[in-house]
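DM between two lab members

TW: hey, do you still have the Aldehyde dehydrogenase domain-containing protein entry open?
JB: yeah, one sec
JB: this one, 317 aa:
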Amino acid sequence: SLVARMTLKAGKITSLAESIRAIADMEDPISHTLKKTEVAKDLVFEKMYCPLGVLLIIFESRPDALVQIAALAIRSGNGLLLKGGKEAMRSNTILHKVITSVIPDVVGKKLIGLVKSKDEIADLLKLDDVIDLVIPRGSNRLVSQIKAQTKIPVLGHADGICHVYIDKSADMDMAKRIVLDAKVDYPAACNAMETLLVHKDLNKTEGLDDLLMELAKEGVVIYGGPVAHDTLKVPKVDSFHHEYSSMACTLEFVDDVQSAIDHINRYGSAHTDCIITTDTKSADTFLQQVDSAAVFHNASTRFCDGTRFGLGAEVGI
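TW: and the structure you got?
JB:
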């Protein structure tokens, strides 16, 4: 999964360029008035977008994250300090050089700084009079460490424990397509499916058996919760709160949509969760009660992406 995150192939570079052009073509957000209210005669209250200031972003191994973060910072008028993982240091150095070389002098080439040493992070985290926001993109441990070491506001999420719940009324052909895409398309991504929840009535049905056969054919290793372990004889999972980031996932059976919601809110990471169902009432209940940044009905978790949402890119969730 580490190598998959670090690799920058031609197709990925092309899609990165397209996402940057999408950001560039957006309406300039700075000084854009959101609301204007005359609260009393000749006393006007105006609400508008403005830059946050200087951002310190500490991110994981993916070098394409550097490009997306830099593009968003430039577009939103923010200064930026970047610290990438040591395993992608050469790629990050080259990408930083490319980006800063095309920033006009009127803007300033020092708008985006690249921090190369891990030792400098501790000193930077003390600069609450200079840096306005820290965004750590990495493990839960990293996010917790950063929060504990600084007075600067921290915007952090760590895990991507995404669920797909197949309801008893689901179209199983659709379910198979969605689950395969959510797990197999890019398993190292934070929006890949890590846990598959299935309504108990679908256990031992032809549709579910076909789906499990397809996952096995793709090389996905399935671990079971207590019920799935007993009935399907698959290896038992140690914890439901686990992000594989590889060709493996957890499977468990639940009693109904409410049980699925309770499971997700207890063990999930509030990233992206999906329900597959033809029952509108069940779908509405799921969409309203699952407390995640993105909640989908009959769509792959892989659609949770800034570019897919028409935003060009994203930092965090």
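TW: got it. The first strand starts at residue 33 and ends at 40. The mean pLDDT is 91.
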